[in-house]
Structure formats: C-alpha cells, structure tokens
Amino acid sequence: ASLVFETLYRLVEIFRSYFGSCSEQTLRAHFVLAYELLDETLDYGYPQNITSDMLKTYITQGKMQAVTPREVSIHATGASSRPDGIMYRHNQLFIDVVEQVSMLVSSKGATLNSEVNGTVLIKCELSGKPECIFGFNDKLFLQGHQAVAHDASRRGKSSSVEIEDVTFHQCVKLGKFGADRTIVFQPPDGEFTLMRYRLMDRAVRTPFHVVPIISEHTRTRFTVSVAIKANFAPNHVATQVVVKVPTPNNTARANIRCFVGRAKYEAEHHAIVWKIRNFSGQQQLTLHAEVQLLASTVETKPWGKPPISIQFIVPMFTSSGLEVLFMNVTEPKMRYAADRFVRYITRAGAYQVRYPEAGSRPGPPPRN
C-alpha cells in the first residue's frame, strides 16, 4: 500500500513540474504528454522512473529527446545526474530536516499513538561533480564509527535514534549505506529530497503536553480549561501555535480568559480558537472558557466531543532527536571548501487530545 501511495504522490509531483498544476483541466489539455509520462514512469504496472529531473532529460514539453542507452542506465541506477560544466561563484549546500509529528491522547491522558514522518531536503549549489558524505546520530552508525560517536558525545550530542522505513533518493549509494550506514551520494543540481524516514511511539519526543478539564454545571452551561506546556528546551520557541477547542453546535456564546495570545469563539468552526504567536520552551499557559448553550435547541443526543487539535511550528527542534553530525563535500578536481547550512523544523500533523469525562482530568505532564 505504501508503494502505491508513494507512486501516486510522485506522479502528482511530475505533473506539477511539467504542467504547473495537477487538475482535470491540465490533464485534459496535456493528455498526450501525460500519457507519454505514464508510459515512461510505469512498466507493466511497476514504477520505474518517477522523478521529474530524470524524465526531463529526454521528455520535453514539445518532443522526446534522443538519448543514449548509457544515459538512460545512468539515470535509472542513480550513478550520476549532474551534467558537465556546472559552476558556482559560492559553493553552498543547504540541508533542511523537516519533521511532522502526529499524536493522539486518550480521555485518560494515555498516548494511544505517536508518529514522526521526517524528510531531509537538500539544496545543492556546488560546482563540478562533488561527492557528499552525510552522517547523523543513527544508532547503528554510531556503533560502527566510535570516533564520530566520541566527538558527538564531546559536543553534547550523545543521544542516538533508531529510524524506520528509510527511503533514499536514487543518487544515494545503497551498498555503502547497507555496509556501514554511511550515506554517500553525488547530488543533482538544485533542490531534491535526499531521504524520508519514520519513527513511532516511544522514540517520539512530543513537543507539547495538553491537559483539558471540562465541568458541566447545567444542561446549558459548562466550563472548560485547557493547560498546555512546551516540553522542549527553553532556548527553543514555537511559532504559529493554534489550539482549537471544539464546542457543541448549539453554542450561544463563550466567555474566554487567557493571559497570552488571543482566543475567540468561531461559530463556523464550532470551536474556540486560541492563537499564540510565540510559545517558549518549558512555558505553561492556560485558557479558561465558560460556554453557554441555546436552551431552546438542547440536543437529546449526547455531544460527541471531538478532540482538541493543535497546530505549531518549532524551528531548530526535532521530535525524533535526529541531528546532522557531519556533511563532507569533496570535489577531486576543484578541491574547494563548500559552505554548509543545516536547519531543523518540526510541524504538527494530526496532533489531537481527547476530552476527558466531565469533572475528571488526565494525568500530569511527563517529567523531562
């Protein structure tokens, strides 16, 4: 199933790179080219060439270019996708580690599931045909490279991670990775996705802990309090934090108190939306709301209590704990020193906390 979804996502990316967008209208307008792309990407139903940079070497908007069998073999095996003559005044390599963390907490405060889906994005502005060696704090890699592990420990990066379901760009030498967990590749020019990975359950460091409390006073009035604490270090600051607290469809008004950020009842979403511009690490904030329901439309069916959801962005933080330890760039002919930049970003996926039973509250936040 994962192969099917991955292939479909890749096809959408290919169509967007060729047509600018992927919609019914664009596919109708470029039916012949779309059919040609499908014929090249799939062979007897199995995905073959499903990256746009490979396809654009011999399939253009107007006609198919003639290529030699050697060129096709090179692109299919990922041996090299860099043309000759690439030159930059400043040789730079930008690395973005982007993670999306999802979590579901039960009404009793127990974590039902948690997952991190990570992507390592590369922007390559390097001259010639360089070879890059990429290393991170993978547990198996550190066990086989004691010198790197000792240097990481000396710099305070002794923790290791066990990544799962790793997929690589075709430029990565898989034999080298299988032998000693070293990621060696000759990067294509421009932007590309070097690798994707996933972590689950206990290995996930959840950025926020949420404790909701709901108290029903009458059939038309109840109060809800939501306490949220940042689990990451004080030197990190989350931005664009949005906490959505659902309310019944027959809500008349909500009296809300919060000391940080802005909160208001949004009738179109049937929820109290609490927006916080900056949320510092280890900070704890609380929202209190008294919700009044319409007495004439009190529903006989119990309210389903949809979960509280959170959106956020935490720069320079990873929920998996993954850190780039080194990125070596060597170009045998030019022998230049490339500038390397690393950035970490953690975003919220489906980050949800279920309402507790009326008058109860989940357990306290975990100790860090």
Description of the structure:
The chain has 368 residues and is of the alpha+beta class. It contains eight helices and 18 strands. The chain has a nine-stranded mixed sheet, with no helix packed on it. A hairpin with a 2-residue loop joins strand 9 (208-218) and strand 10 (221-230). The two termini are 37 Å apart.
The averaged pLDDT comes out at 85
Largest sheet: 9 strands, mixed
How helical, in percent, are the residues? Answer: 10-25%
Strands in their spatial order, largest beta sheet: 6-8-4-3-18-16-11-14-13
The total count of strands amounts to 18
Total helical segments = 8
Q: What percentage of amino acids are in beta strands?
A: 35-45%
Instruction: Provide the succession of SSEs.
Output: HHHEEHHEEEHHEHEEEEEEEEEEEE
Alpha carbon gyration radius: 25 Å
Shape, principal axes of CA atoms = globular
Based on secondary structure, the structural category is alpha+beta
Span of the ends, CA to CA: 37 Å
In the predicted model, the low-confidence regions spanning at least 5 consecutive residues are 62-67, 70-78
What is the strand and helix layout of this fold?
Blueprint: H1 2-19, H2 24-29, H3 31-41, E1 42-43, E2 46-47, H4 52-55, H5 69-77, E3 92-105, E4 111-125, E5 131-136, H6 139-144, H7 146-154, E6 164-168, H8 174-180, E7 183-185, E8 190-200, E9 208-218, E10 221-230, E11 237-246, E12 251-258, E13 262-266, E14 271-280, E15 284-293, E16 308-315, E17 324-330, E18 339-353
Parallel strand pairs: 3-18
Antiparallel strand pairs: 1-2, 3-4, 4-8, 5-7, 5-17, 6-8, 9-10, 10-15, 11-14, 11-16, 12-15, 13-14, 16-18
